[in-house]
Amino acid sequence: MIELSLKKALTGAEGKIALDISCQIQSGELVGLYGPSGAGKSSVLRMIAGLMRPNEGVLTVGIETWIDTENKVFLKPEKRNIGMIFQEHSIFPNMTVYENLVFALDKGQDKSFVDELLDSIGMEKMAGQSPMKLSGGQKQRVALARAMVRKPKILLLDEPLSSLDMEMRRNLQEYIVKFHREYGLTTLLVSHDASEISRMAQRVLVLENGQFSFDGSPELFFKA
Amino acid sequence: MNFEPFILTLKLATLTTCLLFMVGIPLAYWLAYSKYRIKYVVEALVSMPLVLPPTVLGFYLLLAFSPENQLGKFLDQYFDLRLVFTFHGLVLASVIYSLPFMVQPLRSGFSGIPNAWLDAAKTMGKSSWATLFRILLPNMKNALITAGVLTFAHTIGEFGVVLMVGGNIPKETRVISVAIYNEVEGMNYTMANQYSLLLIAFSFTVLLVTYLINHRKNHMLSYD
Description:
The complex is a heterodimer. By secondary structure, chain A is of the alpha/beta class.
């Protein structure tokens, strides 16, 4: 279970936002994080990933404490076992598709899992290719597989689908849900696409004015 | 023709470039990623040789290195190192004088790497070292080449600093620019002409080859 209570003063395009959020996420949930752009959705993910420090707050994952500002606890992102995919492409162009996945392996981890992952995203034939030759959707598929290499328990998705066309979007959505189920992940998906969240998530957290204004089933929220 | 000044110049430029890679990469990395405000002071200092007349820098280096001064005395007594009118002194002066030509291209190289790549590496548990050597440097080859060539070429073209710190000692500090000056002073225009033509031909070739390599790289790296 993820339990968080975090505060962060953000300066965005639309002025200042005092982010003040708290919630619990059960293991195995696929939660959508919805809200207007600039509301701080990405910042929530970045704090969970350890890429951003909150001003104050606590974040616990299972029995581990990742953030506890009062006791000066801040686990570096390198030490948090998470997988993350970003909005921009983050596949390293100096490595092949296969090498990108191998790079993510922990020391001593078995390479065979890389082949298994490439198989499951249907890209085993493109393993030796340079990522430059891939389409946007394929790149994000590789990013998804790469995020899974260390067998994380938490998958953080920071609008990875927003720059893709409809067909590729559907395709990647299916892969995400598949991985989520197969590996028993707890997944957080940032999106500003209501239909995407309705289709994928069992629960939606709506971020408005720095706080979660809704927490419940997507059907309930988007119907209203 | 006496090739000694030319060979000495190549030796100086090669050594300066190697040393500056060792100094420049960490410095440029720090300038690109540090959040401390003091970096702007450091950046201004690094760029000083771009605007100062070489004689100003040479003059102060001469004073600092002089055995009558604290620094010069200290180096002489404890390390048996004399920096005035010696090759070692020339190398150190060149390193300081060519610093911006190394640091600025590298800094832009670092800044050109998308943040998502760094974040992705962190969420894969990679250290800053691994990220530097596997992601950053391999993806900024153009910046590395430009920095190396500019530093090398700039060191070859040095005159003011070299003359002030090194003087005009054959085989020790008489680099090609000083040799040309020397020949002109002695009304020996034929020699001055030969040295100058050699320098022009060499510099042109180095720059041409660099641009060709860089162009080919860009071509290969471009999407589609």
